[in-house]
Amino acid sequence: MIGVLTAVLSPVVAAVAQILVLLVLLAAVHLPLGAYLARTYTSPNHLRVERLWYRAVRVDPDAEQRWTTYLMSLLGFSLVSVLFLYGLERLQAHLPWNLGLTGFDPAGAWNSAVSFTTNTNWQWYSGEAAAGHLLQMAGFAVQNFVSASVGMAVAIALVRGFARSGTDARIGNFWSDLTRGVVRVLLPLAAVAAVVLMASGVIQNLDPHTALRTVEGASQHVLGGPVASQEAIKDLGTNGGGFFNANSAHPLENPTPFTNLVEIFLLLLIPFSLPRTFGLMVGDRRQGWAILGVMAGLWAASLALTTWAEMAGPGAAPQAAGAAMEGKETRFGLAASALFAVSTTATSTGSVNSMHDSFTAPGGGMLLFNMLLGEVAPGGVGAGLYGMLVLAVVAVFVAGLMVGRTPEYLGKKIGRPEMTVVALYVLTVPALVLVGTAVSVVVEPGLAGVQDPGPHGLSEVLYAFASAANNNGSAFAGLTSGTPFYEVAQGLAMLAGRFIPIALVLALAGRLASQTTVPATSGTLPTHRPLFAGLLAAVTIVVVGLTFIPVLSLGPVVESLS
Amino acid sequence: MATTTVASDLATLTRHSLAGLRMLLAFTLVTGLAYPLAMTAVGQVAFPWQANGSLVRSDGAPTTSRSDAVGSALVAQGFTGAEYFHPRPSAGAYDTLASGGSNLGPLNPDLVASIEGRKAAVATEDGVTAADVPPDAVTASASGLDPHISPAYAAIQVERVARARGLSDAAVADLVARHTAGRDLGVLGEARVNVLELNLALDVADLRP
């Protein structure tokens, strides 16, 4: 019966139905999860296991930190994370479960240590040929959890800035936020997801890769590894670093259309739930709905355009083949590949179930655009919410300029110091993307990595720096990034693209928390109405458009027109 | 004055880094060892076949023993014999230690040329016109290990396989139909044929008239 139905359903109807299934699941879960997240970060009580934890690591979870102290704790933790992971990568040859693999070279180890610590998960290496099981577990999986928790902590700190009044810049306790994010949210959800993935065919063992004889007598390796546990947190934490080189296109990471839907659901789950958390914490759920509406609207628009582009299949290669199936898996086809691709670039995930470099010119251009938006629709775990809230401040500022009064958002005055911080935030990542791209296309080691001729070559480099600076991690993988030039340059872009915005967000949070809340008057712009949501969406697109139109014109736009 | 500030900032950062190191070590124990090992235990007990790679024997039966296996039901093998159904092209020559796609852009002349070349080769081998060759037959998959082909690509291979095995087209087409899966839950992904499972079934089944 289902077979008959399937045969009858046109590809477009099936594509729409698939998206609806995803939306129904997200709609059902984001309210309870958003409320749970709000409780997680506002409850004064510690779990018993958390008390033991804080005692063992000797930190005080109840000390309210000023923003500077919060930032110091965050930077200290991230610093040792980079060093520890760098050490594990360099010393791999001497670790157990290394599958006989050697350590990473210094430039590669630097790149990957920064990549996983910054929630980017850009991978210059091929997982099955470079990373042993211990490095995957004790190195990469740990950062998949904690880098996601750091992102949530920063978002929550900013929300506290709005919610609190006159607190002397105190925005919470980093150690408590970090621990609760892992213990109460990520770890239980990842464990459930890992079991679902295992049941559906994702492998989970500690065996090495061993050779067997195929049916026709060729040699092929049976792969081993703790993949399901990694896969679950890779998507849930919007990290994106694949166990294998093919990432979520690999049939042992993502074996069926069902697991594909599960993985897309996981990577959108927390980013789409956090607006509810925000609404609850600032005491006005409508504010959360407005933010969610803008995120979902931008995501849906991008999805519609990308799906249309892939199903239409413009361009010489898709036309020659009959469809844009180069770099896509049969079980996913065009629609489920576009759905994954949009969701992974609109969050800061960067895992892929299809090769973005082979997408049609307008489809690949949309994926690039999603990242250039700053990954706010819905964005990475935590990073999406704080990015969107910063843009909301820009939007009320623009509205304030129009009517000539001091702008306010959620009862907080947006004055010159606040706008200075926000302006620096908005400029940081675009500057990294454009400078990184510009340098790479004029120096010899940068040009050496480019695979495709013409405008697509520029798109490959632009995509790489957009991905690194926005902490996404997906690639137009034709670019050979496993060279010292790209490893060092991308590492710097990832580091600056993560921690400069975080420092600015925490500074903003501190200033806001110090202010007393002013009551709304008849002249206050309501920030929960469609008018404001429309303004916010427009600001998001215009800021990006003005910044990137020249370089997008030279890359994907020229390509789409040729 | 400035030096004192820098020195005290560095001291503060060091103090926070030491606390961070203790935190990180604790997280490494819990999320880096306890979590994956616990999941491994669950997988090995509850889903041993899936957790060990969905391996199959030459008679098509599932196995968890690597020494008995001829492959994984989830991983493509590079079948070339006329008596077997062929998988999609692989950018990594079906090497599981080199998964990935070609990553060639949509306007790349080399990609267009290889698509045209594959199309001509498939048309000749399967005795169909170039226009009848479906897209998945001429494009490299994302993983290089795509275990499936479209029902359309299976359909144009039926006649060649039947001839090579001295079977009727109808018998082979019937076996293909039995190894065709529809969209998951009716709407997820695409319909597909598992090439390894189909080929093993061909080897085992007694389809002679």
Can you describe what's shown?
The complex is a heterodimer of chains A (562) and B (209). Chain A has a two-stranded antiparallel ribbon. Chain A has a two-stranded antiparallel sheet with strand order 3-4. Chain A is built from 20 helices and four strands. Chain A is 66% helix and 2% strand. Chain A has two domains: 294 residues, no CATH class; 191 residues, no CATH class. Chain B has 209 residues and is mainly alpha-helical. Chain B has two domains: 45 residues; 131 residues, no CATH class. Chain B contains six helices and six strands, in the order ααβββαβααββα. In chain B, the strands form two sheets. In chain B, strands 2-1-3 form a three-stranded antiparallel β-sheet, with no helix packed on it. Chain B has a three-stranded antiparallel β-sheet with strand order 4-6-5. In chain B, a hairpin with a 5-residue loop joins strand 1 and strand 2. In chain B, helix 4 crosses helix 5. The radius of gyration of chain B is 25 Å and the shape is elongated. The N and C termini of chain B lie far apart (97 Å). The model of chain B has no long low-confidence stretch (mean pLDDT 95).
Estimate the global geometry of chain A from the Cα principal axes.
globular
Query: Order of strands across the widest beta sheet of chain B?
Result: 2-1-3
Order of helices and strands of chain A: HHHHHHHHEEHHHHHHHEEHHHHH
Mean pLDDT of chain A: 95
As for the number of domains of chain B, it is 2
Features:
heterodimer, A: 562 residues, mainly alpha, 2 domains, two-stranded antiparallel ribbon, two-stranded antiparallel sheet, 20 helices, 66% helix, globular, B: 209 residues, three-stranded antiparallel β-sheet, 6 helices, 6 strands, 6% strand, elongated
List the helices and strands and how they pair.
The complex is a heterodimer of chains A (562) and B (209).
Chain A lengths: L1 H7 L2 H32 L5 H10 L9 H24 L15 H12 L9 H4 L2 H31 L10 H26 L10 E4 L5 E4 L4 H10 L20 H25 L3 H28 L3 H6 L11 H14 L14 H12 L10 H21 L4 E2 L2 E2 L2 H25 L3 H4 L7 H15 L14 H31 L15 H32 L1
Antiparallel strand pairs in A: 1-2, 3-4
Helix pairs in contact in A: 2-10, 4-5, 4-7, 4-19, 5-19, 7-8, 7-9, 7-15, 7-19, 8-9, 9-10, 10-11, 10-13, 11-13, 11-14, 11-20, 13-14, 14-18, 14-20, 15-16, 15-20, 16-18, 16-19, 18-19, 18-20
Chain B lengths: L1 H45 L1 H4 L3 E2 L5 E2 L7 E2 L36 H18 L21 E2 L1 H15 L3 H10 L1 E2 L10 E3 H10 L5
Antiparallel strand pairs in B: 1-2, 1-3, 4-6, 5-6
Helix pairs in contact in B: 4-5
